[in-house]
Amino acid sequence: MWRAFTRIAKTLESLGQGGAVLPQQFQHSQLYNNIHKTNYLRLHNQALLTRLKHRMSTVKPKVVFVLGGPGAGKGTQCSKIVERFQFTHLSAGDLLREERAREGSEYGQLIEDYIRNGKIVPVEVTCSLLENAMKNSGKSRFLIDGFPRNQDNLDGWNRQMSGKTDLQFVLFFDCAEDVCVQRCLGRGQSGSGRTDDNMDSLKKRIQTYNNDSLPIIKYFESVGQVKTIDASPDADKVFQDVERVFVANGFQ
Ligand SMILES: Nc1ncnc2c1ncn2[C@@H]1O[C@H](COP(=O)(O)OP(=O)(O)OP(=O)(O)O)[C@@H](O)[C@H]1O
Ligand SMILES: O=c1ccn([C@@H]2O[C@H](COP(=O)(O)O)[C@@H](O)[C@H]2O)c(=O)[nH]1
């Protein structure tokens, strides 16, 4: 019996190397069947694994851009989307503030100047922070909050990231200027610690938004990628509309 087993094993081994055919008398034995099944399963699993690895390397991360005026409620809604739809929230502003605070950052002072003056940081800095955060997260669904904010941002994203990602849509929180201002001032008064939640910076941020960011939203609108949400009601009401958009776009 043992000799028979050794012979079959050797024969299977040579088969695996593209060798000989099994002796006829073993081809229907239980032992042969078991070894054959085990080999078949091993090869089958290997093939599945290879296909899965290939799929994982070719499926691009899904991205939703979240845009709107300063204080429109983008961050607030992103937290709710994360809870409900398992997205990863990447706020470009938060990433820039983190980079500003990072010891030894060569961009710290530049970022501070841009933020305080409501100007938009050059895309090379912001896009690299976004790409690193996406890679480090190991996740595949991203809300990119507060980006792209001007033509330089959009061009940089198209150069560096659009080929590697799959843009789903642009979520635009539409909110009147005076409401946005009151929300930012309120946030400052409740201790946000942000150097730009004051009237002086806000005037500049709103000007930048009107001059540089609105044209980007209009561009996305012209290519049918914008989902507009009325951001003036309370946050839960706003989220009901947001939820509808995600469900309608296939997210569960
Ligand atoms: N629908 C809402 N109704 C009332 N207040 C809101 C609403 N949504 C957010 N807020 C409040 O307004 C302030 C700004 O909200 P949030 O930080 O979400 O805005 P944002 O668009 O991310 O702002 P920014 O672009 O400046 O980062 C916060 O204090 C938040 O609690
Ligand atoms: O892509 C971006 C995003 C943000 N900034 C700068 O940061 C501040 C604050 O951004 P919030 O989204 O309000 O947190 C913004 O006014 C810009 O100065 C940027 O340059 N590029």
Key structural traits:
binds adenosine-5'-triphosphate, alpha/beta, binds the ligand O=c1ccn([C@@H]2O[C@H](COP(=O)(O)O)[C@@H](O)[C@H]2O)c(=O)[nH]1, 252 residues, Rossmann fold, 2 domains, five-stranded parallel β-sheet, 10 helices
Overview of this protein structure:
- The structure is a single chain.
- This protein folds into two domains: 2-57, no CATH class; 60-248, P-loop containing nucleotide triphosphate hydrolases (Rossmann fold).
- The chain contains ten helices and five strands.
- It has helices at 2-16, 30-58, 74-85, 92-101, 108-116, 123-137, 151-160, 177-189, 199-222, 235-248; strands at residues 62-68, 88-91, 141-145, 166-174, 226-230.
- Mean pLDDT is 89; it is low at 1-6 and 11-21.
- The structure holds adenosine-5'-triphosphate and ligand LLZGTKA7.
- The ligand O=c1ccn([C@@H]2O[C@H](COP(=O)(O)O)[C@@H](O)[C@H]2O)c(=O)[nH]1 binds at residues 70, 91-93, 96, 114-115, 118-121, 126, 146-147, 149, 153, 196, 205.
- Its main location: cytoplasm.
- Monomer.
- This is UMP-CMP kinase.
